[in-house]
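S2.1 Query sequence (Sulfur carrier protein FdhD)
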Amino acid sequence: MGRVTERRRVIRVRDGAVSARPDTLVAEEPLEIRMNGKPLAVTMRTPGDDFALAAGFLVSEGVLGAAEDVRNIVYCAGARDDGGNTYNVVDVQLAPGVPVPDITLERNVYTTSSCGLCGKASLDAVRTTTRFAPADGPPVRVGVDVLAALPDRLRAAQQVFERTGGLHAAALFSASGELLDVREDVGRHNAVDKVVGRALREGRLPLGQAVLMVSGRASFELAQKAVMAGVPVLAAVSAPSSLAVDLAAETGLTLVGFLRGGSMNVYAGEHRLLDADGAPLAAH
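Output C-alpha cells follow.
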C-alpha cells in the first residue's frame, strides 16, 4: 500500500552553501472510486483512509447518509497488469435498496488535488439533495474564543505536515473546542471527505453539533461537503469564495473565514456565535 510520505534527493542552498540531502515529501497518488463495480471518479490523494475518503465523497454526492447504506468497501484486486494490487482502486458496494442517482453512474469525474467539485451544478443541487441541512439541525452555540483557539489546535494535530509542509488538514471539533477527529491530505477536499467518511462509517452523521475547521480557504466544494454532512459551522484560516458565502446563507451554515488568532470574519450564520461575554454575537 502507498505510503503517506516518500523520500527524494534535493539540492539544498542555504546562505550560499550547497549540499545534497534527502527530503521528505508528501505522497500523491490517484484513487479511482467505483460504485457497485462501475467507475465513478478519480481523485489525486495522499494514500491512507481511502475507504473513508470514498464514503465521504459519496456523502457529498448525496448517495450515502448512514452507515447502513454501505454493504462493503473493498480494494479492487488485479489493478496492475501483473495482477498485483496498487491499492489505488476502491469499490463502494451499496446496501440493497439504496437509491443511486442517475448522474453518479453516467458521470466520470476527474478530481485534482486542488479542486473537489469539477463541473458541479449550482446551489440548487446542494439545497435540494442534502438530508441534513444545517438550518434543520439542533441548536448549537460556539464562542468566538473557542473558534480563535482552533487553528493552533489543528496545526498541533498535523503530524505529517510537520515533516513535509505539504498537506492540507480538516478537523472536527465539538462546540466547546474538543478535537474529535483530524485528517490530512494533499487535497483539501479529500481531507474533508476523510473526516466525513469516518463519521459516516461510525454512525455519527449528521454532524449537527460539530465545527469543521479547514487549513486553507473555504471554497464552494468545502461548504457543500459541510452542508451535506449536516455540519452547522465551517471555519477556515483563509478566505471563502463568493459562492461558498451564498451557499452558507441559503442553507443556514455558519461560515467563518480568515480565522487567525483572535480575529475572524463571519460571512453567514452569526446567530450561532457568542461573544467573549457569552452573549449573542452582534456588530457594533
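The longest helix spans residues 144-157. The chain has two domains: 29-121, 135-274.
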